[in-house]
Write a structure and sequence with these properties.
- Among the domains are: 92 residues, Gyrase A, domain 2 (2-Layer Sandwich), CATH 3.30.1360; 169 residues, Isoleucyl-tRNA Synthetase, Domain 1, CATH 1.10.730.10.
- Helix content is 49%, strand content 12%.
- Helix 6 crosses helix 22 and helix 17 crosses helix 18.
- It is globular and about 80 Å long.
């Protein structure tokens, strides 16, 4: 949906606005002293359950409190002043509510025409107006493969970027590569001292080496000291060891990208921590924040650069009560902490300081776009410098993210605090197994739990299902169908859960073709495509055909399809991909009810309009699935 955008309000917004205009006129006549805004009127409108009414306003209850009158009397008076409009056929007062019924034929014509005319752009929005936003994800350490938790980060970052692009934002997909620190130093020590020729995908091999070194450190104290010394040496960026670390990390990141490509996840730019250190970004950030930082000469923080928490808690009361009285920004040995590095990085993101980064093309991607990377040598490019940034980071980092946001407020940049969002997500477990990269549990008990192996296992299980399906006539295409089903199963299972909640991945749920899953939505889409295949020679729908629409499952499906753009805007505003999965599940469920209760091919005089409803369903479902990075298949 990126690159194509609807400039019109959604069909559902159109009818709500019509109801607001009618309400406004009625109130001006009956209660001119009320003084309610258009926004208040719009917020009073909801979509009631059932088929009798299509919209409902609770505005009479708000007016009752303001005017000291009975809401039922107010609603009755207003309804008498609200004649039929273009799409709103009637308004009736019931128990204080103003309930509106749409003209199903006119509204159906509006929705189906918009879907037909806009095609792949249907459901998109112009609300972003080209403003730029950075989405940082997944920021995986280049010392082991993506585990199933990293995959959640990457999928969330990809879908949120898709949502921003669908809403006309320019989304810069950014990956922060932490190629310094103990994890990478641990892997590098193994690369230097224990490495042999990799005999498998590089990140998998390196991850196994990383686990071996961790065991060595537990048994041999001298190894731990050597790793710590190597970690410090890597930060100078010019030694042979530092260059070896960068080479190792780049090979690991290339392997990560292959995993990303397998899941349909792409990037624009990678920012390497070693390049951040080389650019002296931290010292520039310390300069602009010197007024809020302290450097104690004695005590437990002697020689370190800190920010006292009593400066922060007035802005973030939830941080009060910490056992710490200060947060270290730069340690006494001169190395930056996580918060110090992140503060400097975000000062660059928002254009407060210039890093002077140079960039080079890192690699080409299957989507035809290259990934660029910061590098010691290269050319300047236009990355960063935004008004809004989204950080997809585990929920355990909420404390540090909040401190960083407050620091920008303290130095007088409240606009950055407002524009910086932490999209926190919960942990991921597979059938009850808890995962830890440090201990190697991501290797699983008898099998791997990497993102690569999750996809391989899902594809294997999907193939077993596809081979038994009698509805797939193209037997040569089983591998493609199985992979599409596998990806839909994984992505839907990850994305349908609220981001802040933990996930326990269930094969039974993920590959359920009867509901609440990606395969269920794909199967419903394929069912619709079979209907269209049986009617390839049917006549196109005419204006008179729409008279056959009823207030049954056909119109309920039309109304939900009319809410696609509202769904995308809500998901983008709230940074919640689950809003899209919920919509798709509801859409698929309604289509199934429509299909089961209202014959299409044998629909008689209603055949043409019902076929158009089916065509529209396939278009809307395809558009919404594409936001989740899920490809459709015509047979299942």
């Amino acid at each position: 949906m990126a690159g194509l955008h609807s400039s019109s309000p959604s069909p559902s917004s159109t009818v709500r606005q019509e109801l607001v205009s009618s309400l406004k006129k009625a109130m001006a006549s009956a209660y001119p002293e009320a003084g309610l805004s258009d926004d208040e009127l719009m917020l009073s409108i909801t979509v009631p359950q059932g088929q009798e009414w299509d919209l409902s306003s609770s505005i009479a209850f708000r007016l009752a409190k303001k005017l000291g009158a009975n809401p039922a009397e107010i609603a009755g008076k207003l309804s008498g002043l609200m004649p039929a409009g273009n799409y709103v056929a009637s308004v009736e007062a019931t128990n204080g509510y103003l309930n509106a019924r749409l003209d199903e034929r006119k509204y159906t014509s509006l929705v189906l025409a918009r879907i037909r005319d806009e095609g792949g752009a249907y459901g998109t929005s112009a609300m972003g107006e080209g403003r730029k936003v950075i989405v940082e994800s997944p920021s995986a350490n280049p010392a082991h493969p993506w585990h199933v938790g990293t995959l959640r980060n990457a999928l969330l970052g990809n879908v949120v970027s898709n949502l921003f692009e669908a809403c006309s934002y320019e989304a810069e997909r950014e990956d922060y590569i932490d190629d310094l620190g103990l994890q990478v130093a641990t892997a590098l020590w193994g690369w230097i001292n224990m490495g042999d020729k990799p005999d498998k995908k590089f990140d998998q091999w390196l991850g196994e080496l990383y686990v071996r070194v961790n065991r060595e450190m537990g048994q041999r104290p001298e190894v731990k000291k050597q790793v710590e010394a190597l970690n410090k040496e890597m930060e100078d960026g010019v030694s042979q060891q530092a260059r070896a670390g960068r080479e190792m990390a780049e090979r690991c990141v290339m392997a990560h990208q292959q995993t990303a490509f397998d899941y349909g996840i792409y990037r624009d730019v990678m920012i390497w921590e070693s390049d951040i250190v080389r650019s002296h970004l931290l010292s520039k950030a310390l300069d602009i924040s010197s007024g809020i930082l302290e450097k104690p000469s004695d005590g437990k923080y002697a020689g370190a650069v800190v920010i006292k928490l009593d400066r922060i808690t007035p802005f973030a009361g939830e941080l009060a009560g910490s056992r710490e009285d200060a947060k270290v920004i730069v340690r006494s040995n001169g190395t930056a902490t996580y918060i110090g590095k992140d503060f400097a990085f975000h000062a660059w993101k928002f254009g407060l300081i210039d890093a002077g980064f140079k960039y080079r093309k890192f690699m080409d991607q299957p989507n035809g776009k290259p990934i660029y990377s910061t590098a010691p040598e290269g050319s300047p490019m236009q990355f960063g410098n935004v008004e809004r940034a989204i950080n997809v980071i585990g929920g355990e980092q909420a404390y540090e993210q909040q401190i960083m946001r407050v620091m920008f407020s303290l130095i007088g940049h409240e606009e950055i605090t407002r524009g910086l969002f932490h999209l926190a997500y919960g942990r991921v477990n597979i059938e009850g197994e808890k995962l830890s990269a440090r201990s190697g549990n991501w290797l699983g008990d008898g099998r791997n739990y990497t993102a690569d192996d999750l996809l391989a296992e899902a594809t294997k299980r999907a193939m077993e299902i596809a081979q038994k399906s009698e509805k797939i006539t193209d037997r040569q295409n089983l591998e493609h169908i199985s992979r599409a089903v596998a990806l839909s199963a994984i992505k839907f299972e990850y994305l349908k859960i609220a981001t802040e909640k933990d996930i326990t991945f269930s094969w039974q749920n993920a590959l359920n073709f009867e509901g609440n899953s990606g395969p269920y939505v794909l199967y419903t889409y394929a069912r619709a495509m079979r209907i269209l295949g049986k009617s390839a020679s049917a006549a196109a729908m005419s204006d008179s055909d729409v008279s056959q629409i009823t207030r049954g499952q056909d119109f309920q499906l039309v109304k939900l399809m009319g809410m696609a753009q509202d769904t995308v805007e809500k998901a983008c505003t709230e940074l919640r991909p689950s809003v899209v999965t919920d919509y798709l599940l509801g859409l698929s469920s309604l289509f199934s009810k429509f299909y089961e209760t209202m014959p299409v091919v044998k629909g008689g005089d209603a055949k043409n309009v019902r076929l158009e409803v089916v065509r529209s369903f396939t278009a809307v479902a395809s558009n919404m699935l594409s936001l989740l990075g899920i490809a459709t298949v015509s047979e299942m």
